[in-house]
Amino acid sequence: MNMVSIIIQIILALGFLMFGASKLGSKQMVDEFTRYGMPLWFRVITGLLEIAGASLLIAGFWNHSLIAIGGLLLAVIMAGAVITHLRIKDPISKIGMPIILLILTLVIVFIN
């Protein structure tokens, strides 16, 4: 693994652990998913999948093939986030972070 890949992998893993955990208990996330028109159980599933994807990125330090699986899982989640923000006509300020995270997860997948 090259240094750029490792740095991106660490940033993504830590970020998605944080984002996933926030979806499990944050009132702000409850309000956001309500605004998206999505059921609250979907918020919990999304949070758990983000934590799972981050865990796969971390495990990828020991088992290299897990990086691609975690990266693909997170890329699918971020593609869904971008589509959701576009569907409800959010401003670019709300769509920017999911787009950046989608790009970074795809970079990790392609590097590895």
Write the layout of secondary structure elements.
Elements: H1 3-25, H2 27-36, H3 40-59, H4 65-87, H5 92-111
Helix pairs in contact: 1-3, 1-5, 3-4, 4-5
Helix content: over 70%
Q: Which residues form runs of ≥5 with pLDDT under 50?
A: none
Oligomeric assembly: single chain
* Average pLDDT for all residues: 94
Mind summarizing the main beta sheet?
Answer: none
* Topology order in helix (H) and strand (E) letters: HHHHH
Strand element count = 0
Shape: globular
Beta-strand residue percentage: under 5%
The CA-CA distance between the termini, in Å, is 8 Å
Task: List the total number of helices.
Answer: 5
* Alpha-beta classification: mainly alpha
Rg estimate, integer Å? 14 Å
Offer a few descriptive terms.
112 residues; mainly alpha; 5 helices; 86% helix
Please tell me about this protein's structure.
The structure is a single chain. The protein is an all-alpha fold. Helix content is 86%, strand content 0%. It has 5 helices and no strands. Helix 1 packs across helix 5 (92-111) and helix 3 (40-59) runs antiparallel to helix 4. The radius of gyration is 14 Å and the shape is globular. The mean pLDDT is 94.
